[in-house]
Amino acid sequence: MRYGHFDDDQREYVIGQPDTPLPWINYLGTDAYFGIVSNTGGGYSFYRDARLRRLTRYRYNNAPLDVGGRYVYVRDDATGDYWSPSWQPTPERELDDYECRHGLSYTRIASARGGIRAETLYFAPLGETLEVWRVRVTNDRDSAAELSLFSSIEFCLWDAQDDATNYQRNFSTGQVEVVDGVIYHKTEYRERRDHFAYFACSEPLAGFDTQREAFLGAYRGWDRPAAVERGAASDSIAHGWQPIGSHHVRLTLAPGETREVNFLLGYAENPRDDKFDPPGSQTLNKTRVRPVIERWLRPETVEKGYADLRAYWDALLGGLRVRTPDQDTDRMVNVWNAYQCLVTFNMSRSASGYESGIGRGMGFRDSNQDLLGFVHMVPERARERILDIAATQKPTGGAYHQYQPLTKRGNNDIGEGFNDDPLWLILGVAAYLKETGDLALLDVPVPFDNEPGSEVPLYEHLRRSLRYTLERLGPHGLPLIGRADWNDCLNLNCFSDTPGEPFQTTENASGGVAESVFIAGQFVLAAKELAGIARLLERDGEEVFYRAAAEKMAGSIAEHGWDGAWFRRAYDFYGNVIGSGENDEGQIFIEPQGMCILGGVGIEDGLAQRALDSVAERLATPHGIVLQQPAYSSYRIELGEISSYPPGYKENAGIFCHTNPWIMIAEAIVGNGDRAFDYYRRLNPSAREEISEVHRCEPYVYAQMIAGKDAPTHGEAKNSWLSGTAAWNFVAITQWILGVRPDFDGLRIDPVLPADWPGFEVTRSFRGATYEITVRRAEGATSRVTEVLVDGVPVPGNLVPAAAPGTTVRVEAVIG
Ligand code: BGC
Ligand code: IFM
């Protein structure tokens, strides 16, 4: 069952009924001012940091799930009937029709009731720290309509953590000012009034409210605000309690008439040395923000701001366009998957329907992987991000697992010791270098742990990343896992000395001898990438060393990491094997099958093929590939958190979508296009649109997890949007299945297609030039590309050398 459809021309997902199985959200903002917005107007906004600079209030895990938002109410002043055009928060007031269009960084919700149509466009203009709500109200009746319009938001410009845990404080700190119809929410003393939020309206006001209880009325909710019910605001001024912003506008519309009313919600800083408001001053810098407000309340500015936003996305997405025989592939690659990759760049794991904006900062491993999906769109920002991440690395090569974006300091609850972390930096940097050819990045001085004076060239950070693993090998010559590897929940050094005693969680967790075959595979991959980088730098000795290190590690995998039909997962604290036929549960895990093959282990000797057959036999389901089998049926102290999930969920045999593209890539590496593409389609959200009642999350973005075959809700997705799933699926389809893959020396054309595809076309920018690529399969051919012509001239192998910036190159590749 579908709840909407894709409008491919407009690049919008059109939701046709408001009661989707879960709130289906979208993001506003492209740079520093952001918000989430659901299909029923729910969500909140923030400037840079969803915890420390949150403008509006949102309560997670609410009932219903999604209340609190950017709500508008329409009131028929002749009858007293009122409703919200976004359906929430007045779901009892039935709409005659409804449509929500989620587009790229904007959302438009339109509906009608009783002959009055209202459409709200929400977006945050480029380069501003504000958002616009453009409301258009149309009278479709054949008589004049006397209407009222009420806006509403709930302010929250203080620490969102406090808002949930120490709200007694905020009951006394909230203050507002209303000047010339603009509602200013001032900030608390702790912030020294160095910033504020404002909420403005383009029309003369009939009234306003800024105190929640005055607007809603005592013991009432957002579904029936007293001010809306009686058709009059009370001009309330909040002193503490719950400051809100609500404007009341009266409109008289002739039959057929449409009126536009614009609302602005914005954030402004009061620089401390401001000439109008000296430091510590209690007055707001309204003087500075007033011209911005006036400009953005004008319809022509709004029109242009919206057009500019659309042009911005045209430019970003224009750099990689595919035309394949599969519509779901085209739509995800050309629009939605690319969009999700940029959202993960902006949000990391901060704010979504599942991430509170409070708990998690920037993940070291997460951000390096996100980069793989957006480096081609915003290479300069990827460069900044790499330097930002690398500067949090420790001199040992180790890394904070997570760090706060504003302070750049590690998140101490989590600490370090996830031993896969450092290697992701090499993979992220390699991707950037392959895309851009910008070797100068390697010379940039980067500190350790942001300590001034500790700067070394970025290249040295990469060397230390590799050394970090080499200095931490276990009894089988495999890398020590530390607190966990990619799989956060595989806590193999969590143990209890005394049977029956609770297991020790963290303190000694990284000190044990448990080893990871996954990190071993990742090491082989990273060492080869670093060897490639050393070659470019003509550091021949190092190149040889890294290649030898990769080979040695591959040897340890062959000796201790192969289980007969698949790669093992790990050795635990006691030296017992995990992910082996010897185990009763957790016999085969997906991650080492993917990562060892990505590292090139087992290709020549057929082990890779054997491992992939085991994945197909034991892990694949119609909804994707589960993480391991059999699922753990009870808690096991020696394995840690993985066994704390019920079977089929999350890391305990859920379809952890992040890992599936590794298998797609592995299948492509061994040349199996049918299987690679089949796995790709099982996860592709657009291809799953038809089963939205099962999948339940948004059909336009990937989710972190789909319940596995052991779960009663097999096929149900959770945790959409902020997941490494976005980047890896993008890489799998574009670089390995379609095979258009940036490499250190040029653009590789190495497609591995499903047997029934005659070919496809790609337009791609690469290092400033444009490549018009056509891939054609010769009749009956099943293997790899046999011939590549660049502007009609054959090139050796499948590597297209980088062309001069500004030029357009025609590439024809034949699968022979
Ligand atoms: C995983 C969770 C896990 C948590 C704590 C997250 O990254 O997705 O499944 O519970 O880490 O380790
Ligand atoms: O690898 C992790 C990631 O860093 C955060 N989400 C869960 C993944 C698997 O545990």
Automatic annotation (TrEMBL):
UniProt xrefs under InterPro entries: 6-hairpin_glycosidase_sf, 6hp_glycosidase-like_sf, Gal_mutarotase_sf_dom, GH65_N, GH94_catalytic, GH94_Enzymes, Glyco_hydrolase_94_b-supersand
One GO BP: carbohydrate metabolic process
Organism: Actinoplanes aureus
Key word RNA-binding present: no
Residues annotated as domain Glycosyl hydrolase 94 supersandwich: 11-271
One term of GO molecular function: glycosyltransferase activity
Lineage summary: Bacteria, Bacillati, Actinomycetota, Actinomycetes, Micromonosporales
Keywords, alphabetical: Glycosyltransferase, Transferase
One protein family per Pfam: GH94_b-supersand
Organism superkingdom: Bacteria
Protein's UniProt name: Glycosyl transferase
Keyword Transferase attributed: yes
Chain ranges of the Glycosyl hydrolase 94 catalytic domain: 312-739
